[in-house]
Amino acid sequence: MYIPDMFRQVDTAAMQQLIAEQPLATLVMATDDGLEANHIPLYWVDIDADTVVLRGHVAKDNPMWRQCAAATDVLVIFAGAQLYMSPSYYATKQIDAKVVPTWNYLSVHLHGDLVAIHDTQWKREMLDRLTDQQEASQPVPWQVADAPAAHVEKLMGAIVGLEFRVTSIEGKWKASQNQPLVNKVSVVDHLRSKTADNSLAMADLVSQSIPRKQPE
Known about the structure:
This is FMN-binding protein negative transcriptional regulator. The protein is of the alpha+beta class. It has a single domain, classed as Electron Transport, Fmn-binding Protein, Chain A (Pnp Oxidase, Chain A, Roll), CATH 2.30.110. The protein is built from five helices and eight strands; from the N terminus they run E-H-E-E-E-E-E-E-H-H-E-H-H. The chain has helices at residues 12-21, 120-135, 149-156, 181-192, 197-207, and strands spanning 8-9, 24-31, 34-41, 43-48, 51-59, 73-85, 102-117, 159-174. A hairpin with a 2-residue loop joins strand 2 (24-31) and strand 3 (34-41).
C-alpha cells in the first residue's frame, strides 16, 4: 500500500482498535488460479509478544478454504472511517482557490498465511469469541449458548474455521495532515456542523493533528 510518511500509522494499538470496531475484512488470496476475494469478519488474537493471528470462519460450501495451502500470498484489508472532502471545507478556498477534492480514510493491510481449521472445539471457541465481541454493545448480549446445543452443533458442521497468521501489518491514516492549520480548523468546523456519524468521526480524526492551545 502506498503510504506517504505523514499518513503512516505505526501505533499497533490504534490498528488493533480499528479492526475491533470494523471487523469485516476483505481477504484476498493469490493462487495459481488468480486472485480470490472474500468478505469475512475476523478478530485479533495475541498469541505471544511476537505472534498475532486473526480468526474467523467461512461456509464449508465456500471453495476458498480449500485453496489456503496453495495460496502464495494472502492480504487482509480492514477499512475504517472514510469521507469525501469537498474543497468548500477549506478556508484557503476564499483566498486563492487553490484547492481540490480528496478523500480521507483509514485502512489497515496485513499480509500472512492462512490455515483452514476443522477442529470442533476450536470452532466453538472462535464463535464464542467473535459473538461476544459483536454483541458487547447490545443491552442484553446474545451468546452462542442461548441457541439449542443440537442446532449449534449442526451449524458448526457447515463451517470451516480460518486462522490468518500475520507476517506484516501497515496502517494508513489519511486525515488532512497535509493541509495547513487554517484548513484543518475549517474542515473540523464544517464536519462538526453535520450530524452524520462518519462526518463527526472524521472531524475527531482531523482534530488530532491540530496543536492544542496552551493554557495562559
